[in-house]
Amino acid sequence: MASSTDLGKPVGVTLDRFIKRKQDSFPYATGELSQLLRDIGLAAKILNREITRSGLLDLEGAFGTQNVQGEAQQKLDVVANIRFKRALTNGGQVCALISEEEQEVITINPDASYLVAMDPLDGSSNIDVNVSIGTIFSIYRRKSEKGSQVTKEDVLQPGSAQVAAGYVLYGSSTILVYTTGRGVYGFTHGPTIGEFFLSHPNIQCIPDGKIYSINDGYWDQMSGKLHSFIENCRSKKLTSRYIGSLVADVHRNLLKGGIYIYPPFPKYPNGKLRLMYEANALAMIVEQSGGKASDGKQRILDIQPEDFHQRTPLFIGSANLVDKCLEMIS
Ligand code: P6P
Asked: N or C, fewer C-beta in 10 Å, the chain?
């Protein structure tokens, strides 16, 4: 029984201190990856401040340009890309950046060890209606020698080669979730202090979720086998939840159990979501928490990219739900 003097969950360790402690447990750690994670955390804090005030700073709405995907860039898409590019440049730990908002690979510091692939702000069409949006990032170690030119082999690595991955969800509170391959940790931003604090140690995704997330506005474009899976979910009284913001949907399903599906549609024959800077990072996070992520035929993390902007279908979340879905659609 909580007493009146309880102050709720004790505030956890800060992100920076947690990263340092984790680094100390790696005997050969040089501190480069730690610094890179801190750089991402800093950019997230800065962007969070702008997102929470976007309506007051005239940062809502379209910027008036299109990104490489031909999608209208929102003002905050451009701001987010600038913030992360600047933080990663100033931090010095990144040799090259792949961004949804950049047509080409951005070379940063040829002497650095890591590449970052990121969607600086996913779901930005939700900004103007105050729906949660997110940043998604993957971190790879370069294959070529430090100091040399970044190569195609450095860039086009499968998700299984990620050394770290994560996302930031700018929602009712702002949370940064990441993994370096040894568990999944969530840090909630404390706005009055301006720090991320450990709030979700060792996130686990339950195998039998009770939520399915798919845009059923595309019902008529779905295969009969996918219809059968969705009808199976309904017969088992699963709840349908679809926010239309990838990070928000995946984060909820990660914490509560569930499956998010973005299948191929005639409009998106290879799926809508991006392999290198959306699906891979979320797949690493979800697998590390005990879940699964597939393109419908193979494990997302096993896909060998051919183009760093390539799209992929995505079936991600609770392991038994993903298995059931893949069984029914195959
Ligand atoms: P649809 C947002 O544009 C996004 O990339 C994801 O965040 C989201 O899950 C999906 O697209 C929504 O797409 O076609 O259902 O509107």
From this structure: N
